Amino acid sequence: xxxxxxxxxxxxxxxxxxxxxxxxxxxxxxxxxxxxxxxxxxxxxxxxxxxxxxxxxxxxxxxxxxxxxxxxxxxxxxxxxxxxxxxxxxxxxxxxxxxxxxxxxxxxxxxxxxxxxxxxxxxxxxxxxxxxxxxxxxxxxxxxxxxxxxxxxxxxxxxxxxxxxxxxxxxxxxxxxxxxxxxxxxxxxxxxxxxxxxxxxxxxxxxxxxxxxxxxxxxxxxxxxxxxxxxxxxxxxxxxxxxxxxxxxxxxxxxxxxxxxxx
Length: 263
Prior knowledge:
Oligomer: single chain
CATH class of the largest domain: Alpha Beta
Number of domains: 3
Distance between the termini: 137 Å
Strand order of the largest sheet: 6-5-4-7-8-9-10-11-12
Helix content: 25-40%
Number of strands: 12
Largest sheet: 9 strands, mixed
Number of helices: 6
Strand content: 15-25%
CATH topology of the largest domain: Rossmann fold
CATH architecture of the largest domain: 3-Layer(aba) Sandwich
Order of helices and strands: HEHHEEEEEEHHEEEHEE
Structural class: alpha/beta
Shape: elongated
């Protein structure tokens, strides 16, 4: 009888311990569930609160465009949750709408700020067609038409004629490589020669030869954009020799580097 009682007592104790363990296991799971539910609720509340909504936009690296001109392109981001801002879309919009911007980087500054870093295009040459002048950068992108009141401002940039046979639109890219080479050549020309250069033009032949016109209506036929440095050095030597000999010329032809001619 005693043995049966002890056996029954042990069974009850075991069952009680199992029940207690099950209770605490359930209680821990319950607490963990409450914790995660609370955390999700808190994150959702924080996500939808004003804490992560864009309140300010900072711009740096710009000189041509005012901060306001850049900001107004993405004004719809103000008040938007910082996690929902499409960085790539905003960057593409700025480059597409503002032709002077060459590169742009948009960074999210948590919790509620956007920083826009831009690199603008620099005027490289002037393009002429008809009675209009246009600014282009070193990639051939047309930046804008030069107004009469701004022509003096960009006078030091080489003027290139016959690079286009139509009136280009801002943002358009001109295709002629030699037009851009005019700018490169002009930059490395000897300073005295550069002062005497009035403008450049592209010959209307299959090669699109580069021709520089001087203030004295002389022609310097540069030819293609090959061997630029060598041609510039040869031109300097020729000009120095012509000055010594006081020789009047009409044309200097550098198309054949090994045999330049003066007429």
